[in-house]
Input
Amino acid sequence: MTTSGVTGVDRLKPKIIEGEELVRFGPRMKENAEKFGDKPCVIDEVETLTWAEFGDLVARVAGRLQSMGIGPGHMVASLAENSAMNVVMYAGVLYAGACMVPLPFSATEEALIKERADCGASLLFTTAQYHDMAERLGADTLVDLADLRDWIGDAPAIDPVAVTDEDLFDMIYSSGTTGTPKGIVHDHLFRSRQFSRTSSYGLEEDGVLMMSTPLYSNTTLVAAIACMVRGATLVSMKKFNTIGFLELSEKHRATHAMLVPVQYMRLMDEPRFDEFDLSAYQCKMSTSAPLPGVVIEQCMKRWPGNIMEFYGMTEGGPATVLDCAAHPDKWDTVGQPQPGADMRVIDEDGNELPYGSYGEVVGRSGSMMPGYHNNPEKTREATWVSPEGEHFVRTGDMGRFDEDGFLHLLDRKKDMIISGGFNIYAADLEAVLRKHPNVADVAVIAIPSRDWGETPLGLVVPKGAASAEEIRDWANAQLGKTQRLSAVEFREDLPRSEIGKILKRELREPYWEGQTA
Output
């Protein structure tokens, strides 16, 4: 076990909200278990747990942890796919006041070993699918979630352990593929403030939320934890597939879902989509990457309920929301800053730019990470201090705010293409290519050019009969002279992370081997 390496010196300072009343996770779980009793709480492919059953298991997981001396200041890790028992374990760790560290099973073994060592968790929960990998991570104690009830044994159901604002809630590791991954820590203040925002999107006790992205992702946790706090029902998918998602949505009368853009794309491409009764849906949420306007248009036509698109960081700070029903003319944006969020744009030297200028987006809000675990240097690198002395989180995203205050994102700063001295934003080129009827998916990357240093290449997953050259010429006819694609190449698919982000570094590597750039 270990205590957090985030000290008072390293901590970012979130906004102060006068008179706020915070919901604590542990006490709310006990309250919900008593209030909702036989109502379904968590459903997976194997079992359904009522709120009473869930609450008892969570309180006894905490009792078992307490008997091991685990509580506030300690970290517990997991390496496991989605399941009801994974949710129980996660909630039990929080109920005990400890910090939950869900390790990303999509990471390499090298990265996972570093993450387990960095967090120092000596107790690791896993499943049969990841047991062999888990054994190599160096934890003292390994518990299979299939045996969770046996591990609990006759441990008593305890009351929730008291925590402070600064006690750590969970830690999410960044998805970096090189170096030591960064542990992004969230304290109870961070998560408690997030809970208070969910009611405005209709996720209440009568809601049914589909969970189809991994529980180690902040994308998933934002919705899943809020679902539990609100007393709603959580439907857990072990692994996303279109037909399974649609079948479960219809069967359980799902009202809400948190999805990433690639899932929306795949659902819209599913030939059987319109066969399913999705009339119970009230709201679908999207995050992790901008949701293309053409996809929003299809979903709004074919799928009941609204779409709320969120932009933010696992680190917290910047936060925008796009209400797609209310703003059909802004589907090419990621919305406006959420209430309480202060967002600005800065240049290369860290100078604040006038409204409407292109630059790096920075943000500040009530929910901000205290810092990176054991890494004050990286915390400082991720922080911009305003002229007023306030801490902002640097996003690494390039964008601008329009005259109505909506944020237009362009690219990750590191992914910008510089060709012949001109800055080219891949997002602009991808937006044009997506409009072609024979393009199913697309990524634009920089490749070496003897004449221009770099030049844009379109990687397209095709549908239909158009050739790569035809698609390139069609797109170039709509692009500026300095933006034009050098070529389009076809791919069967594009590599993506578990939460749907295109792995552009992986796409670029073959073209840059042996290059100095």
Summary: DSSP finds 15 helices and 25 strands in the chain. The mean pLDDT is 91. The two ends are 42 Å apart (CA to CA).
